[in-house]
Amino acid sequence: MPAALFPGIETHYKGGHHAVLDAGAHVLAWTPRDQVPVLWVSPLAVFEPGVAVRGGIPVIFPWFGAGPRGDQTPSHGFARTAEWERTGLVDDLVETGRLEVRHRLTSDGLQAAPFSAELVSEFTRDHLRVSLAVTNTGTADFSYEEALHTYLAVSDIARISIEGLDGCRYVDKVDGGNQVQAGPVRFAGETDRLYSHTGDVVVDDPDWSRRIRVSKEGSAVTVVWNPGAIRGAALADVGQYWAGFVCVEAANVGDRTITVQAGETRILAQQLHLD
Fold first, then answer.
1. Which of 42, 109, 114, 270 is the most buried (most CB within 10 A)?
2. Do the beta carbons of residue 213 and residue 252 sit within 8 Å?
3. Which domain holds residue 87?
4. How many domains does the chain have?
């Protein structure tokens, strides 16, 4: 972790690896003992102020992509490149194997409706839980989109499948239109889908003899994304490494945009567990 430009918390203990950056409150690593990394970080990732790191779990807020109207910048909102304040640390790795890091971001200095956001990253021996709590600190309703843009490391995108989405409707952002998932999700090219879905999914990776369960709370949409060979090669910070990950994201986007009243708090959470 390039600490000089990107301070944060990083631990190596009994074969495990945990890391979260202060910039973007960006979880960068979760590797349980005797495992290959669960989170993928591109070998071509750029670590520079104001640039989103490709991999880990970027926080998408307060809009997704270019926003509901298609005219907002930067892409996927300002939270993933903002400097969050680290407000709490619980290091209980020796006793229980648990590490908790808390970060806070407010609308101060940002061109945004009044809000306060807290990102809690909890690392344990058997799971990683990330939760985003957004509070409306203003006097009028506040609407936003959000996602935990999780990059999962896989052996080969063409060899894996995703279970748990059978029968779910989805918006296909590659081919256009609305579709219904039939059976497990498999990958044969660029995939970018917004599933209407509130439950768990399992990423089955037979080559690594691994199944990653993705559970979530407060989420009406599951995003599944891989750029495929052509688009992946065109992304400077992905390149030839496009087949080594799949994004599975707890989200509230599009027609599932969140609206919070004054003083109200909404929580979006996602938990990764190796079955």
1. 270
2. no
3. 8-158+218-266
4. 1
